Amino acid sequence: MEFSKLLFNKTLYQLEFTDIMNYFLIRREESLNLEFKSFAPQGDYTKKEEAIKKAVCGLLNSEGGIIIWGAPVEVKDEKGNTMATGNLTPFDSNLDKDRLVNILTSSITPMPIGIKVQVLKDGNNHSIFIIEVQKSIERPHQFDNRYYVRLDGQTRIAPHYLISALMKSSNYPVIRGHIKLKHITNDGNNAVLRFRKLLYNTSDFNNDKHVYFKIVAAPGNIMIGNQSYGGIFENTFPLLSKGAPLVGDFTLIIPIAALGQEITILLNFGGEKSPSKTSIYKYIISVDHIVAGDVPDEAPYLQAKDENRLPSDVTDNTADQNIELIMNA
To answer: Hey, which residues does 168 pair with through a beta bridge?
Structure first.
């Protein structure tokens, strides 16, 4: 889920410093998915950074959300809710987004994914950090040997019953799916694109059964060996274990006349115990820029890539809204 878009109507990497300034022109309240961290110049910096790690850990173990580090100074209302409004508290920092992500992920166990950071600078080159955290599918996580959660708008040490529930709910393998362009040829009438498909179980000692995948491509005709499948190919496998990935190549045949338009390939996959995920790829290959042979780097052709997304990541609709859309289609 793109929390930044829900809060600011912009994706995380579209945000500018003025967007956060304008956001706090009115009083804002922390919530399950939103935490403020102002920066006071006095005090121990290490403790400030530890507070960020706790907050990230809490969001990973809860429903995900946004942390604004450099927010206005927080106050409590009469009900104990945390509020903030007014001037931001940017600070001098040599951290860039990659370094902060590395600090956070290396401090939390198991090492999490789904953490993004945007650094925004003011006119004095001081920084605020917008940290977007996705709900983790490998919960529970801990920092400094403690589990944290986001409850009632606050980051707290998690109670035993909740950690027990999280441990039970995370007992499923984590599968990742990828597609990559490997080879291009041109037979005069068609472009022949060979792709490699990979399904990889990243979980130790947790096999998945009845693993399935579906490849959907447009435009083009999918070929496996000498068999044509049109725009859709799907298959199942009885077992997927770590160290024994499912790897296979497929060919996409595209008429020369169709080149230059966007090529979209979707890989949907899952298993008996693992949730359905989707990876989406968009390519543009023009006649003038085809270089026949192996493709050591697909970047010149790849326009967009969005991998291993859960259904909840690609839509903000509720289940009822999705059902209604399907029934009314």
So the answer is: none
